[in-house]
Protein backbone atom coordinates (compact mmCIF):
# COMPACT_ATOMS: atom_id res chain seq x y z
CA UNK A 1 0.00 0.00 0.00
CA UNK A 2 1.39 3.40 -0.97
CA UNK A 3 2.03 5.86 1.84
CA UNK A 4 -0.78 8.37 2.17
CA UNK A 5 -2.58 10.34 4.83
CA UNK A 6 -5.19 7.59 4.92
CA UNK A 7 -2.75 4.85 5.94
CA UNK A 8 -3.48 5.44 9.64
CA UNK A 9 -6.52 3.16 9.25
CA UNK A 10 -4.16 0.15 9.33
CA UNK A 11 -3.76 0.62 13.07
CA UNK A 12 -7.30 -0.73 13.52
CA UNK A 13 -6.37 -4.11 12.10
CA UNK A 14 -6.27 -6.85 14.72
CA UNK A 15 -3.15 -8.97 14.97
CA UNK A 16 -4.22 -12.59 15.23
CA UNK A 17 -0.94 -14.48 15.14
CA UNK A 18 -1.40 -17.97 16.58
CA UNK A 19 0.84 -19.07 19.43
CA UNK A 20 4.21 -20.43 18.28
CA UNK A 21 5.30 -24.03 18.80
CA UNK A 22 1.75 -25.35 18.96
CA UNK A 23 -0.02 -27.75 16.65
CA UNK A 24 -2.60 -25.97 14.53
CA UNK A 25 -5.78 -27.81 13.62
CA UNK A 26 -8.08 -26.09 11.17
CA UNK A 27 -11.48 -27.76 11.11
CA UNK A 28 -14.12 -26.98 8.52
CA UNK A 29 -17.78 -27.94 8.92
CA UNK A 30 -20.63 -27.87 6.47
CA UNK A 31 -22.98 -24.95 7.11
CA UNK A 32 -26.67 -25.81 6.90
CA UNK A 33 -25.88 -29.21 5.42
CA UNK A 34 -29.12 -30.75 6.66
CA UNK A 35 -31.05 -28.63 4.16
CA UNK A 36 -28.35 -29.08 1.53
CA UNK A 37 -28.42 -32.89 1.72
CA UNK A 38 -32.22 -32.95 1.70
CA UNK A 39 -32.40 -30.70 -1.35
CA UNK A 40 -29.96 -32.91 -3.26
CA UNK A 41 -31.62 -36.11 -2.03
CA UNK A 42 -28.54 -37.63 -0.43
CA UNK A 43 -28.64 -41.34 0.34
CA UNK A 44 -29.13 -42.26 4.01
CA UNK A 45 -27.40 -43.04 6.30
CA UNK A 46 -24.32 -42.36 4.15
CA UNK A 47 -23.85 -40.98 0.66
CA UNK A 48 -20.61 -42.30 -0.78
CA UNK A 49 -20.71 -39.69 -3.54
CA UNK A 50 -20.51 -36.84 -1.05
CA UNK A 51 -17.86 -38.53 1.09
CA UNK A 52 -15.75 -39.05 -2.03
CA UNK A 53 -16.27 -35.42 -3.02
CA UNK A 54 -15.23 -34.26 0.46
CA UNK A 55 -12.09 -36.36 0.14
CA UNK A 56 -11.32 -34.87 -3.27
CA UNK A 57 -11.68 -31.34 -1.89
CA UNK A 58 -9.44 -32.21 1.07
CA UNK A 59 -6.77 -33.52 -1.30
CA UNK A 60 -6.76 -30.17 -3.10
CA UNK A 61 -6.10 -28.43 0.22
CA UNK A 62 -3.37 -30.92 1.16
CA UNK A 63 -1.72 -30.42 -2.24
CA UNK A 64 -1.75 -26.64 -1.83
CA UNK A 65 -0.32 -26.47 1.70
CA UNK A 66 2.76 -28.61 2.25
CA UNK A 67 2.78 -27.77 5.97
CA UNK A 68 -0.41 -29.80 6.41
CA UNK A 69 0.83 -33.22 7.49
CA UNK A 70 -2.43 -35.15 7.59
CA UNK A 71 -6.16 -34.57 7.51
CA UNK A 72 -9.13 -36.41 8.96
CA UNK A 73 -12.64 -36.24 7.55
CA UNK A 74 -16.07 -37.61 8.42
CA UNK A 75 -19.54 -36.64 7.25
CA UNK A 76 -19.48 -32.90 6.44
CA UNK A 77 -16.34 -32.01 8.40
CA UNK A 78 -12.60 -32.12 7.80
CA UNK A 79 -9.68 -31.42 10.15
CA UNK A 80 -6.32 -30.32 8.75
CA UNK A 81 -3.29 -30.91 10.96
CA UNK A 82 -0.40 -28.49 10.48
CA UNK A 83 3.24 -28.77 11.42
CA UNK A 84 3.79 -26.86 14.65
CA UNK A 85 6.74 -25.02 13.07
CA UNK A 86 4.74 -23.57 10.17
CA UNK A 87 5.23 -19.87 9.58
CA UNK A 88 2.84 -19.59 6.67
CA UNK A 89 1.13 -16.18 6.67
CA UNK A 90 3.12 -15.51 9.87
CA UNK A 91 0.66 -17.92 11.54
CA UNK A 92 -2.16 -15.39 11.19
CA UNK A 93 -5.38 -17.17 12.11
CA UNK A 94 -7.63 -15.22 9.77
CA UNK A 95 -5.39 -15.89 6.78
CA UNK A 96 -4.97 -19.61 7.46
CA UNK A 97 -8.62 -20.33 8.23
CA UNK A 98 -10.05 -18.24 5.40
CA UNK A 99 -7.70 -19.70 2.79
CA UNK A 100 -8.33 -23.33 3.82
CA UNK A 101 -12.08 -22.80 4.04
CA UNK A 102 -12.40 -20.96 0.73
CA UNK A 103 -10.15 -23.41 -1.14
CA UNK A 104 -12.03 -26.41 0.24
CA UNK A 105 -15.38 -24.88 -0.71
CA UNK A 106 -14.31 -23.96 -4.22
CA UNK A 107 -12.82 -27.46 -4.74
CA UNK A 108 -16.10 -28.99 -3.52
CA UNK A 109 -18.07 -26.99 -6.09
CA UNK A 110 -15.51 -27.46 -8.88
CA UNK A 111 -15.52 -31.26 -8.51
CA UNK A 112 -19.27 -31.67 -7.95
CA UNK A 113 -20.02 -33.10 -11.41
CA UNK A 114 -17.31 -35.76 -11.01
CA UNK A 115 -19.39 -37.42 -8.29
CA UNK A 116 -23.01 -36.33 -8.83
CA UNK A 117 -25.13 -36.69 -11.96
CA UNK A 118 -27.52 -33.98 -10.82
CA UNK A 119 -26.83 -30.22 -11.01
CA UNK A 120 -25.83 -28.23 -7.96
CA UNK A 121 -29.12 -26.74 -6.79
CA UNK A 122 -27.84 -24.50 -3.99
CA UNK A 123 -24.51 -23.16 -2.84
CA UNK A 124 -22.62 -25.27 -0.29
CA UNK A 125 -20.72 -23.37 2.38
CA UNK A 126 -18.36 -24.32 5.17
CA UNK A 127 -17.33 -22.53 8.32
CA UNK A 128 -13.87 -22.91 9.80
CA UNK A 129 -11.98 -22.54 13.05
CA UNK A 130 -8.43 -22.93 14.28
CA UNK A 131 -7.64 -24.78 17.50
CA UNK A 132 -4.17 -25.05 19.05
CA UNK A 133 -2.83 -28.13 20.81
CA UNK A 134 0.28 -28.06 23.02
CA UNK A 135 1.61 -31.60 22.50
CA UNK A 136 1.47 -34.58 20.17
CA UNK A 137 -0.33 -36.48 22.93
CA UNK A 138 -3.20 -33.99 23.03
CA UNK A 139 -3.21 -33.74 19.23
CA UNK A 140 -3.62 -37.51 18.94
CA UNK A 141 -6.44 -37.41 21.46
CA UNK A 142 -8.16 -34.80 19.29
CA UNK A 143 -7.98 -37.17 16.31
CA UNK A 144 -9.09 -40.07 18.51
CA UNK A 145 -12.10 -38.01 19.58
CA UNK A 146 -13.13 -37.23 16.00
CA UNK A 147 -12.82 -40.87 14.92
CA UNK A 148 -14.66 -42.16 18.00
CA UNK A 149 -17.38 -39.63 17.24
CA UNK A 150 -17.54 -40.94 13.67
CA UNK A 151 -18.12 -44.50 14.91
CA UNK A 152 -20.76 -43.51 17.47
CA UNK A 153 -22.69 -41.36 15.00
CA UNK A 154 -22.50 -43.89 12.19
CA UNK A 155 -23.70 -46.78 14.34
CA UNK A 156 -26.64 -44.68 15.50
CA UNK A 157 -27.47 -43.44 12.00
CA UNK A 158 -27.18 -46.90 10.46
CA UNK A 159 -29.62 -48.29 13.02
CA UNK A 160 -31.91 -45.26 12.85
CA UNK A 161 -32.30 -45.41 9.07
CA UNK A 162 -32.69 -49.19 9.07
CA UNK A 163 -35.67 -48.78 11.40
CA UNK A 164 -37.17 -46.24 8.98
CA UNK A 165 -36.26 -47.70 5.58
CA UNK A 166 -36.62 -51.39 6.43
CA UNK A 167 -38.73 -51.32 9.59
CA UNK A 168 -41.31 -48.79 8.46
CA UNK A 169 -41.00 -46.53 11.50
CA UNK A 170 -41.37 -42.78 11.40
CA UNK A 171 -38.43 -40.55 12.34
CA UNK A 172 -40.01 -39.83 15.72
CA UNK A 173 -40.74 -43.51 16.44
CA UNK A 174 -37.20 -44.49 15.45
CA UNK A 175 -35.76 -41.88 17.83
CA UNK A 176 -37.94 -43.17 20.65
CA UNK A 177 -36.98 -46.78 19.87
CA UNK A 178 -33.26 -46.00 20.13
CA UNK A 179 -33.47 -43.74 23.15
CA UNK A 180 -31.21 -45.06 25.90
CA UNK A 181 -29.76 -47.92 23.83
CA UNK A 182 -26.04 -48.74 24.02
CA UNK A 183 -23.71 -49.89 21.27
CA UNK A 184 -24.30 -53.63 21.75
CA UNK A 185 -28.07 -53.16 21.56
CA UNK A 186 -27.79 -51.27 18.27
CA UNK A 187 -25.65 -54.10 16.87
CA UNK A 188 -28.32 -56.57 17.97
CA UNK A 189 -31.16 -54.55 16.43
CA UNK A 190 -29.34 -54.40 13.10
CA UNK A 191 -28.51 -58.10 13.05
CA UNK A 192 -31.65 -59.66 14.53
CA UNK A 193 -34.21 -57.46 12.80
CA UNK A 194 -32.53 -56.56 9.50
CA UNK A 195 -29.75 -59.16 9.06
CA UNK A 196 -27.16 -56.38 8.94
CA UNK A 197 -23.74 -57.16 10.38
CA UNK A 198 -22.41 -53.73 11.27
CA UNK A 199 -18.83 -55.02 11.13
CA UNK A 200 -19.30 -55.57 7.39
CA UNK A 201 -20.19 -51.94 6.72
CA UNK A 202 -17.66 -49.99 4.63
CA UNK A 203 -14.64 -48.79 6.60
CA UNK A 204 -15.08 -45.25 5.27
CA UNK A 205 -18.43 -45.13 7.08
CA UNK A 206 -17.14 -46.57 10.35
CA UNK A 207 -13.70 -44.94 10.53
CA UNK A 208 -13.86 -41.89 8.33
CA UNK A 209 -11.09 -40.80 5.95
CA UNK A 210 -7.44 -39.98 6.54
CA UNK A 211 -5.21 -38.19 4.07
CA UNK A 212 -1.56 -38.63 4.99
CA UNK A 213 1.76 -37.76 3.39
CA UNK A 214 3.68 -40.93 2.55
CA UNK A 215 7.36 -41.47 1.87
CA UNK A 216 8.22 -42.71 -1.58
CA UNK A 217 9.23 -46.35 -1.79
CA UNK A 218 12.80 -46.97 -0.55
CA UNK A 219 13.02 -43.39 0.75
CA UNK A 220 14.36 -43.14 4.27
CA UNK A 221 13.26 -40.56 6.80
CA UNK A 222 15.75 -37.94 8.00
CA UNK A 223 16.99 -37.99 11.55
CA UNK A 224 14.83 -36.40 14.21
CA UNK A 225 17.09 -33.33 14.18
CA UNK A 226 16.55 -32.73 10.47
CA UNK A 227 13.64 -31.17 8.64
CA UNK A 228 11.89 -31.92 5.38
CA UNK A 229 12.20 -29.18 2.78
CA UNK A 230 9.15 -27.88 0.94
CA UNK A 231 10.41 -29.62 -2.19
CA UNK A 232 10.69 -32.95 -0.34
CA UNK A 233 7.17 -32.55 1.04
CA UNK A 234 5.76 -31.89 -2.43
CA UNK A 235 7.45 -35.06 -3.71
CA UNK A 236 5.71 -37.15 -1.06
CA UNK A 237 2.65 -39.04 -2.11
CA UNK A 238 -0.77 -38.36 -0.63
CA UNK A 239 -2.50 -41.53 0.49
CA UNK A 240 -6.15 -41.92 1.43
CA UNK A 241 -6.83 -44.40 4.24
CA UNK A 242 -9.87 -45.67 6.12
CA UNK A 243 -8.16 -47.22 9.13
CA UNK A 244 -8.03 -46.79 12.88
CA UNK A 245 -6.06 -43.72 13.85
CA UNK A 246 -6.68 -44.54 17.51
CA UNK A 247 -4.50 -47.67 17.35
CA UNK A 248 -0.76 -47.18 17.73
CA UNK A 249 -0.13 -49.12 14.53
CA UNK A 250 -0.99 -46.12 12.36
CA UNK A 251 1.72 -44.05 14.07
CA UNK A 252 4.26 -46.84 14.62
CA UNK A 253 4.36 -47.66 10.92
CA UNK A 254 4.89 -43.98 10.06
CA UNK A 255 7.61 -42.71 12.44
CA UNK A 256 8.47 -39.93 9.98
CA UNK A 257 5.17 -38.21 10.86
CA UNK A 258 6.65 -36.98 14.12
CA UNK A 259 9.36 -35.20 12.11
CA UNK A 260 6.84 -33.67 9.73
CA UNK A 261 4.61 -32.55 12.59
CA UNK A 262 7.48 -30.80 14.32
UniProtKB/TrEMBL annotation:
Pfam families reported for this sequence: Thg1 (PF04446), Thg1C (PF14413)
Domain tRNAHis guanylyltransferase catalytic span(s) in chain numbering: 6-134
Catalytic activity: a 5'-end ribonucleotide-tRNA(His) + GTP + ATP + H2O = a 5'-end phospho-guanosine-ribonucleotide-tRNA(His) + AMP + 2 diphosphate + H(+)
Domain Thg1 C-terminal: 139-246
GO terms, molecular function: GTP binding; magnesium ion binding; tRNA guanylyltransferase activity
Domain of life: Eukaryota
Binding site for GTP: 29-34, 75-76
Biological process, per Gene Ontology: tRNA modification
Alphabetical UniProt keywords: GTP-binding, Magnesium, Metal-binding, Nucleotide-binding, Nucleotidyltransferase, Transferase, tRNA processing
E.C. designation(s): 2.7.7.79
Positions bound to Mg(2+) 2: 29, 76
Family: Belongs to the tRNA(His) guanylyltransferase family.
Role description: Adds a GMP to the 5'-end of tRNA(His) after transcription and RNase P cleavage.
Name used for this protein in its record: tRNA(His) guanylyltransferase
Species name: Schizosaccharomyces osmophilus
Organism ancestry: Eukaryota, Fungi, Dikarya, Ascomycota, Taphrinomycotina
Gene that this polypeptide is encoded by: thg1
